[in-house]
Amino acid sequence: MKVLVVGGGGREHALIKKIKESKKVDSIACCPGNGGISYDAECYDVSATDIDGVVNLAKEIKADFVVVAPDDPLVAGMVDALNEEGFKTFGPAADAAIIEGSKVFSKNLMLKYNIPTAEYRVFDKPEDVIAYLEEKNEFPAVIKADGLALGKGVIIPETLEEAVAGVKEIMEDRIFGESGNSVVVEEFLTGPEVSVLAFTDGKCVKPMVSSMDHKRALDGDKGLNTGGMGTVSPNPYYTEEVAKECMEKIFIPTINAMNKEGRTFKGCLYFGLMITPKGPKVIEYNCRFGDPETQVVLPRLKTDIMDIFEAINNETLTDLDIEWYDEACACVIMASGGYPKSYPKGIEITGLTNGQLDGVTVYHAGTAVKDGRLVTSGGRVLGVTALGNTLEEALKKSYSAVDKIKFENAHYRKDIGQRALNAEK
Ligand code: AMP
Ligand code: GLY
């Protein structure tokens, strides 16, 4: 089989490394890919959001299977376009990807089908949001732009002034474009967060092993929100009891709800959960693998990933037993100094041979090969990942590799996994 993976970050690199292990696969292509991915797959210079370009590439290289990884092409209907041309695909159709594409859709879905989530109100006029927040006068408040916003569409203001400024940016200055046509204002929930990615073919749902993201830029969960600065798996807050409750009250009801709406979801559904004092609640759905959750979940997958993708495509996932390794996994993101704000590109990275280092797997997120040298090309640069018999051991291996990898002004958190380790004790 020839598999084409659409996307070019650390998540796609983790998918490609796993697909490479498949007995069914002889070659892997990626668009656009990146410097590190080019050691594992043939990279093509086609943007991940260019639907016509990707369909043409799939035809040109005669792809047998296409995996669409990022949110924007899924929400824009890339899978639909590929299916129309007869390609086998992994990823939801646009009518199901809306579960991530519109917060208003997903909140209304949860309300309608009684799936636990924060209480909310929807607004499409900035003055109505402000009037509501003024009257309620409860802070922190949670304000979310309706549409996709590069993971930055959520603000949690501590004061009314901050809220007013945020609403202005989203709804008047349109910093996220049309994503700010409406906003959701939510109840502020507390508790540890858990990410659960789940395979589903619309008939059954098979959760993967759990993970924990670290979204803030700085140690101690301080600083700005980022795409994710590191992950660990498993997540100790996701006990068997919590897992059972999530299955009954969240996972199965969500799959059923999407079917009832005529929007059957096939692919990887990401449940962003908060374990509140009143039980697990959904913070967000994503219509795709998480980044950097995938980097710690897939190394633990024992079953051939192409068997899973094909079973989802054929709607026979119920019959497939998915197996996992017991080891723990940790991923530490090395980012460009300045990220998530502006940062330089093109800085040489040293300490790696063919993009890798013994004892760990380095997933490349923002790298390029220029004149034979590996250089930075994005905010999140590398995901330095290790398996271990314990989480402590996995973290030790990741951090000792991080010490050996150098680029000017590299920034990484030094406390990835600490919260999980403390919870284990
Ligand atoms: P999201 O992009 O929806 O995952 O939100 C980003 C982050 O904001 C989440 O990971 C949470 O830490 C936080 N967050 C989102 N919704 C809520 C909420 N209702 N209560 C408290 N924190 C929230
Ligand atoms: N790590 C969070 C996400 O993929 O949305």
Summary tags:
425 residues; alpha+beta; five-stranded antiparallel β-sheet; 13 helices; 22 strands; globular; binds adenosine monophosphate; binds glycine
Structure overview:
Helices cover 31% and strands 25% of the residues. With 425 residues, it is of the alpha+beta class. The strands form six sheets. The chain has a five-stranded parallel β-sheet with strand order 3-2-1-4-5, with helices on both faces. The chain has a five-stranded antiparallel β-sheet with strand order 12-15-18-22-19. Strands 6-9-7-8 form a four-stranded antiparallel β-sheet, with helices on both faces. The longest helix has 21 residues, at 240-260. The N and C termini lie far apart (46 Å). The mean pLDDT is 97. The protein binds adenosine monophosphate and glycine. The site of adenosine monophosphate (AMP) has 12 residues, from strand 17.
Relative strand content: 15-25%
Distance between the termini: 46 Å
Largest sheet: 5 strands, parallel
Gross morphology is globular
Low-confidence stretches: none
The counted number of beta strands is: 22
Helix content: 25-40%
How would you classify the helix and strand content by structural class? alpha+beta
What is the overall number of helices?
13
Rg over C-alpha atoms, rounded to the nearest angstrom? 21 Å
Mean pLDDT: 97
Bound molecules: adenosine monophosphate, glycine
Strand order of the largest sheet: 3-2-1-4-5
